[in-house]
Each structure stands twice: as structure tokens, then as C-alpha cells.
Amino acid sequence: MTDQDKNEIAAIFTDILASYDHGCPNGIDAKTADTLRTLAEAFQTGRKTALKAFITLVIGAVCAVLLAGMKELFNK
What we know:
- This protein is mainly α.
- The protein is built from two helices and no strands.
- It is rod-shaped.
């Protein structure tokens, strides 16, 4: 295969690739991908915040029960 053959094949492939749409085959464009990425990050942040809130609620409930028990103990 000579250099001329290689150049001809490269030109054919360049023409073929130029004729195709360069978008995602699934129909997701850059704006949609950024929106999905932002949504996933927000979901992860929300999940972490919900877990922290739940842990705080459980610790607060335990402290409230302990304080109520101590108050009842001292009142007797």
C-alpha cells in the first residue's frame, strides 16, 4: 500500500465521518448531560443531608428520653 492509497482511504473516511451527526446516539446533548449531572449531584447532597438529619433526630430523641428519665428520677 502506497502513501497515495493511504491518503485516498483517509480522504474517504474523512468524508464519511463528516457526513454523520456528531451528537450522542442516545439523543443526549451537552445541556441535557449537564442537567443530569447536576441532578445526580443534588441527589447525593440531599441524601447526605437527610442522613445527617436522621442521625441528629435519633440522638436528640435519645437525649430527650434520658433527660425525661432523669427528671422523673429526681422528682421521686
